[in-house]
Structure formats: C-alpha cells, structure tokens
Amino acid sequence: MKQSLLLLFSIVLLVFACTRKIQQQPEDQPTSYDTVTTRIEPEVRKPRNVILMIGDGMGLGQITAGMYASGNKLQIERFPIVGLHKSHAFDQLITDSAAGATAFACGKKTYNGAIGVTPDTLACTTLLELAEEKGYATGLVATSTIVHATPASFIAHQKQRKMYEAIAADFLRTDIDFFIGGGKKYFDRRESDDRNLYLELQQKGYLVSDYFRQELYEAPADPQRNYAYFTSDADPLPVNQGRDYLPLATQMAMDHLEERPGKGFFLMVEGSQIDWGGHANNESYIISEMQEFDRVLGMVLDFAEKEGNTLVVTTADHETGGFSIVPPARMDSLATAFTTDYHTATMIPVFAYGPGAEAFSGIYENTAIFYKIRAAMHW
Ligand SMILES: [Zn+2]
Questions:
Q1: Among the four 58, 166, 194, 332, which has the fewest Cβ within 10 Å?
Q2: Statement: residue 28 has pLDDT above 90
C-alpha cells in the first residue's frame, strides 16, 4: 500500500512537471531555433523601380568577346547576382525574339513570331501592362524599330511579329509614359489604314519628336507629359555606322520616369543589334554593339546605386551565331568563329542588382523572369 501510494505520488509529480513545461512553451510560440532563423534572415525590400535590360542575341560568347575587346573589363561585372535561363520556345527548341520577349513579358512560352500572345493567340498581360495597372510609370527604349519583336512583346498583342502597323496601333491603346526607337513610318505613313498615329499621340497629349525634326538632345522630355521620339524611319543604323542615341535615350528614360507621378516605374531597354551582328556573322558588329550596351548597363547601375531602390535585371532572349572565341585568339587579338547565322539554344545568363536580386540566381525557364519580377514588385 505504501509503495503504491509512493508510485501514485511520483506519477502526479511527473504529470505536473510535464504540464508546467507545456504551459511554459505554448505551441503557437516560435521555438528558439525559429526565432534565431527569423532574426538573421534579411528582410527583402520591395523595389520602387524595375529596369529590364535585354541584349538581343547576347550569349556568353558575345559578353566574353566584348570583355576581352575592352581590356578584360566590362560594366556587367558589377552585377552581384548571376543565373541562367532556358530560352526554348513553346514548340521549338530554338526561340526567336518574339517568343523570347513574350516569355519575359507575360511568363508564357509561346510560338516563334508571337507578340504578347499565348500559343492559342490569346493576348497575355505583360509586365508593362501590369505596371500601368498598378500605378507605375512605364517606358521602352530600343536600338531597333520600337515595333520590333522585343519592345513590341511588352506592349502589343499580335499573332505575327511582322504586323508592324498593327503593333504601332497597339501603342495607342496604352498610356506608356516614354518610348524611343526607330520605325516612324509605321506610325505616320501607314499602308494598312489612313491613321496618322504620330498625330494621334500628340492629340493624346504626348510630346512627340523625331530624327528628321531634331536631334534627341535637342528634344528634352517634359515631366508633365508623356514622351515619344523616333530615331529613324525604319531600322536605326548600327553603332559602327554612327548610331549613338542609346546612352542618352536610356538616361532620359530613367530621369523622366522617375519624375512622373506614380509608385515607381517599369523600364525595358533593348540593345537590339548585338543579334544583328550575330546574324551577319560579323565579329566587329557584335563587339561594338556589346560595348555600347555595356556602357549603358554602367549608367543604369549608376542610377540604381544612387536611387537606392531599383531592381535591375539584365539578360538576353537567346544567343545568336553560336559565336565563340577560338585559337589562336589572344586577349588583345581575338579570333572568333560562328556555327550558324541563326539563333542557338544555349542557356542564357541573367544578371541582377538591387532589392530582390537574389531571386535571380540559379537555373530556370525564361518564363520565370516574369514571375520573379512580379514577385519582387508585389504585382
Ligand atoms: Zn532576339
């Protein structure tokens, strides 16, 4: 009897002790491990602005050649985060610029030639449209025509990339704050209808000018108004034939968009002709376009560093030319070769800087760039 009483007492004591212990640490309190984890994890700030830099056809060969041709140093080396994307299209391993840009713009794999539409030709919402919807200022800058595949995929919805006049008309459906590129004739001398979109932009309140009227530096933007400038009638020249507007256009875009009312801005800048150098299998064409694009990357990073809350993402839609550096190349005297005059399926580097940049490390599909930007911006 005495023994069983002692046993009972011990059990009661044990239960009491256990209960007390449980009371001291209710289940909804974090464990000390969680607390420590939470404390050391850096808080990811939401960026105010996002700038997407696309070097069309800019694979590692193009970047490397540009780097060695520039004394083994490029601005692109300032990006702290590097990842790789898989560029393939919906039904083709080798993408074109339209499907490639639509993947970034909409987060959808689509067919080659598709401009902001899914494989069943339905319009998909683009980053630029999301930005507008959420109250951000928006801009596009390109060294091709502004209706060319890459810029077009962010603002237009057309079944085929060659529908330049229809793409131009889609600009009027948006309230894009700023754009600079070639292709004036698709706006003011149209074959498919009698519309003059140059005048329609002015009637909508845009400050519009062009290469024929005045140089870009003579046509400053007014922060009170939307802005459009056409750098050529059709395709702009290569940089080694005198084109020089990309640095100024990009600086103007950042300055203008920063002053526009809104929560921040979305800007896409395309170095369009790195790709054209690849199609032409022309080493000096590639290198000169790469060097100009890299100079602009330096300006964009300077802006982002100063502004302090801008996410910058730099990538390409695909590589062009199967461009490589081959023996007997030396750093000061490159020898290069091409495996094709079209695009290749090699994985493409992605560089990121600013709040949210960490999400761009790793290997992922090209469509993930849309989702990563969306997540960073809380769109
Ligand atoms: Zn391309």
A1: 194
A2: no
